[in-house]
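Input (structure):
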């Protein structure tokens, strides 16, 4: 009876083991890390009603197995996010990173170059760790000045383009830019009400879904 040489049997066994490992890795659910500020941290809302929590519900409804980690902190800036990201990547090993930061930089009058550099560094750090990145852009109210507002909004597109990252241009589209928009905000006129958060998710979901596919 013909017997395969030992090295051939070894090669076939190794190939089957590798294929099995590859299938196992392919079936591992994505891990989505959200690195944001109060807009993602459910500031002023009851727990489980913000857009990140709604994202978890959406994934379940779409029968898309994924784990969502909300590492957002109210008041956080791009500098704060940059300082926290390395440890989060090492601990959580996300496959996808959503960066929703920058609004507090502008509210505090921080230099736009600093904000852009921080976003660049966070995007590149996440990508080097093997994660796909989705940048969430923001816009400033008109009272900040037309020139400043345009430059601030444009820096998100610039970071996304230079790093080939995905982009949602404006998280609050359909909330902050509609007639009588104040009805959709809390008393501070900064943080959206619970009723507005499905719209925030609707802005994020199409781009995130592309990355998950």
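Output (sequence):
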């Amino acid at each position: 009876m013909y017997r395969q040489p030992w090295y051939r049997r070894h090669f076939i066994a190794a190939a089957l083991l590798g294929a099995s490992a590859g299938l196992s890795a392919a079936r591992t659910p994505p891990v989505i890390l959200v690195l944001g500020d109060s807009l993602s941290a459910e500031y002023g809302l009851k727990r489980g009603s913000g857009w990140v929590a709604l994202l978890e519900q959406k994934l379940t409804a779409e029968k898309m197995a994924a784990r969502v980690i909300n590492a957002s902190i109210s008041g956080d800036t791009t500098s704060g996010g940059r300082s926290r990201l390395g440890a989060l990547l090492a601990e959580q090993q996300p496959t996808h990173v959503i960066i929703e930061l920058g609004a507090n930089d502008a509210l505090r009058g921080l230099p736009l170059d600093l904000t852009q550099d921080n976003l660049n560094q966070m995007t590149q750090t996440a990508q080097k760790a093997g994660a796909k990145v989705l940048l969430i852009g923001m816009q400033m109210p008109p009272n900040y000045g037309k020139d400043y507002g345009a430059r601030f909004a444009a820096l998100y597109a610039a970071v996304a383009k230079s790093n080939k990252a995905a982009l949602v241009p404006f998280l609050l589209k359909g909330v902050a830019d509609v007639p009588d928009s104040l009805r959709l905000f809390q008393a501070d006129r900064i943080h959206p009400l619970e009723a507005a958060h499905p719209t925030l998710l609707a802005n994020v979901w199409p781009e995130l879904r592309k990355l998950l596919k």
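Notes: The chain has a mean pLDDT of 90. Strands lie at 31-36, 67-70, 96-100, 132-136, 166-168.
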